Amino acid sequence: MTTVDPGRSPARLVVGVDIGNSTTEACLASIGPDGSITYLATDLTRTTGVKGTPDNTAGALTAVRGALERAGRRVGEVHTVLLNEATPVISGLAMETITETIITESTMIGHNPATPGGEGLGVGTTVPVGALPEQAPGQPVVCVVPAGADFDDVAAAVNAAVRRGVDVVAAVLAGDDAVLVTNRLDRPIPVVDEVAAVERVPLGMLAAVEVAAPGRTIRTLSNSYGLATVFELDPAQTRQVSPVARALTGNRSAVVVRTPTGDVTDRRIPVGELVLRGAGKTLRVDVDAGAEAIMDTVARVQPLDDAHGEPGTHVGGMLAQVRDTMADVMDVAGQPDVPVSEIAIRDVLAVDTFVPAEVRGGLAGEVALENAVALAAMVRTSRSRMQLVADLVSEQLGAAAEIGGVEGEMAVGGALTTPGVDRPVAVLDLGGGSTDAALLTREGECTAVHVAGAGELVTKLIDSELALDDRETAESVKRFPLAKVESFFHVRHEDGTVQFSDQPLPPHVFARVVVLTPDGPAPVPTWHGLDHVRRVRREAKRRVFVVNALRALRQVAPGANLRALDFVVLLGGSALDFEIPDLIADALAPHGVVCGTGNVLGTEGPRNAVASGLVRAHAAVLAEGARCPAS
Amino acid sequence: MTTATTPERTLTLREIGPAGRGTRPDEVVIAVSPAFAGHFTKTIVDVPHAEVLRQVLAGIEEQGVTARVIQVFDTADLAAISHGGAKLSGSGIAVGILSRGTTMIHQKDLPRLSNLELFPQSPLLDPAVFRMIGSNAAQYAKGESPQPVPTRNDQMARPRWQAKAALLHLKEFECIQAGRPAVEVEPVFGRVGSRRLG
Questions:
Q1: Does A35 score more than 90 pLDDT?
Q2: Is the pLDDT score of A630 beyond 50?
Q3: Which of A129, A143, A150, A533 to mutate to test the interface with B (most CBs of B within 10 A)?
Q4: Which of A365, A404, A566, B22 has the least CB density, counted as fewest CB within 10 Å?
Q5: How far lies A363's CA from each of A102, A124, A211, A433, A540, in Å?
């Protein structure tokens, strides 16, 4: 009469297992013959191997055994193991610089040394310090000092020249000596130092040196008309020097030398066109137009069928690299390789970013913040190998193993166990590679979308914008709050509160900006202040997660109208972040949406949604079977 | 970096009184060992003590921080010299220097045997490094986060210089005057000859 033998086993023990990109989660429950669910235990472990490959089996078994142990059950009691159908997307990242600054003929020094000397503006002809004794009095001169000169000797030489009547109005030094020299001068002048390639400063040319007071920025050389006044330029020449003025904005010190054809250019690097195909059209967009233009174009070709880069350009290389990586991931031993041409890019997220790069032609290792575009691309795969994992799990545990429903639907099911949530509900799964959204309507219809770009992209943006060159450090900057170690016994948190400690902090964090990891403070190797690091971190999260949350929710919302959504539940590892949920909630607030981090089963937080969703779906099927038994 | 060694510079440390605790938060104390600029006049690799002290002072001055020099007589242990200096420093930061050149940046709240930066291989310290040490000490005093001075390492330094270092240490040890308190000194730089700037 029924599918369950009531005499032997009134309640079945089932385990839902969700294999994600980074974690594998299990949910153990017993299901009564009427479909009632009793949740017994959950567990979480690191995913072994790449998601969707047979390597996952070990992690899945660990999670199942962990949950059984917590509930005090034996492996033999398990009736069915339920596995998720892996999200059929993998994602890749690439970044390309789209501007570069070039200084020709050594016209400009704008490297902002930490300690320039003196204050004010000096305009004169460039003369090497060795030639000062032969210099005739009268003409204003700017003294150029080579590497290796001692500060006492330089100061003595300048003082001697000034006493003879030579009008030394400023100095440019190779070494870090500006304050030392200025302190020893009879008549103070502005001094710019740490100009490593000082030997390339053109001599016998008119030059202007400006140093601002501490805490201020230069006013004359960063103003086009200030430059025109200093060098007596005509309107055409003024137009030509305006990039120089712009490049010097925000500096505390600068040197500008007037040479016949010297110039500073801010060049856009042609990186090529992105070709987007979808919705029956093919649109092209220049990548150097920036992220906004790219995303506008992407929105016009939804749903995207494929994206290509113009062959032979940087963007062509970027997308080819993404495709190659994905072909490698999808390769299966014993099966023919996936042809790269068959891999279709189904979503692209472009983000404007900047990369600190050394200026070409600079004399002092000047660094300019060059614009760059980061692209996250997502590919759909048809070759999920969850069945292989299911077979292996079944063999090891001696229980049946089934592949449950689509991940997005399962996540919605799990999210519904959050207290205070009701249909229609949308979930946002903030993962590592992709951001997924799913909507369950009041009628029980479910739609799901995946968009490219998530936690990995945030890490990459933080890494390049802070020039850390270390993924691990960037990851911890992303995940933990910052503080400044002000003494061995106190730190100042990023919100300004001070915390004292009884034990002295380790010497390697003294006076540094640190991330407060669970293992204690770890220094961030940057000369930027805490505020800058914090701004970079929050901006990276906003540009990826807030943009993607809105983008993904618009795709599932009825009529692309966010107001039609009532409840939005945030799930996934990045929903555990200390500020991403707040950033998204702030962005959704104007649309009248209830948004918050999920609390699956009322205890699990944003974790375990898919695993418990699998159990719920299975129970629903059993209950259905019990009500209308197959004849 | 200004690295020209000027051997004609001389250094005498003129005693100006007992070493007291500083009150200015913008000062770094430089604590030198008993035989510094006295029994010895140069480091293990012949960098004149005049140049060592001048460069450390210059590094501190370039950062806009003031410096006070003290000489310690009752120990030749670098950790004790540096930590003692740090406890007298208004900012809590001190640079300790031994006659053979070994140098350390210390902070008053640290355990004596810890340090902020240690430069243990005296044969590898040249005037440019001493300048950076002074500069970093001053930046710590200002509450900034300097990148640690790159420490060089030479596997051959040990076999090549160990015997000389041991002898120099013994000599320094003999200059210890037990029970004599540290004194504040004024460095007086002299010049034997004069040199035209090239």
A1: no
A2: no
A3: A150
A4: A365
A5: 11, 19, 17, 41, 32
Size of interface A-B (CB pairs under 8 A): 72
Tokens of B54: 């001048």
Measured between alpha carbons, how far is A52 from A452 in angstroms, rounded to an integer?
Answer: 18
- Give B67-97 as a DSSP string: EEEEE--S---HHHHHHHHHHH-SSSEEEEE
Residue in B with minimal Cα distance to A153: B197
* Rounded alpha-carbon distances, angstroms, from residue A381 to A52, A54, A386, A606: 10, 16, 12, 26
Give the rounded distance of the alpha carbon of A99 from its chain centre: 19
Domains of chain A: 1-86+384-413+606-631 (3.30.420.40), 91-98+269-380 (3.90.470.30), 110-260 (3.50.30.70), 420-481+513-598 (3.30.420.40)
Residue A226 backbone dihedrals phi, psi, to 5 degrees: -65, -45
- pTM to 2 decimal places: 0.80
- Of A323-327, A498-502, A579-583, B112-116, least confident by mean pLDDT is A323-327
CA A608 to chain centre: 26
Name the residue in chain B with its Cα closest to that of A176: B1
- DSSP helix/strand/coil, A81: strand
Domain B9-144+154-186, CATH number (from 3.20.20.450, 1.10.287.110, 3.40.50.10150, 3.30.930.10): 3.40.50.10150
Residue of chain B with shortest Cα separation from A527: B145
**ipTM of the complex as predicted:** 0.86
Q: Does B37 touch chain A (CB under 8 A)?
A: no
Per DSSP, the three-state class of A406 is strand
Say yes or no to pLDDT of B87 above 90. Answer: yes
Tokens 């979480």 identify what position? Answer: A44
pLDDT digit string, tens, across residues A431-442: 777 888 899 888
Q: Residues B117-173: pLDDT tens digits?
A: 999 888 999 999 999 999 999 999 998 888 889 888 888 888 889 899 999 999 999
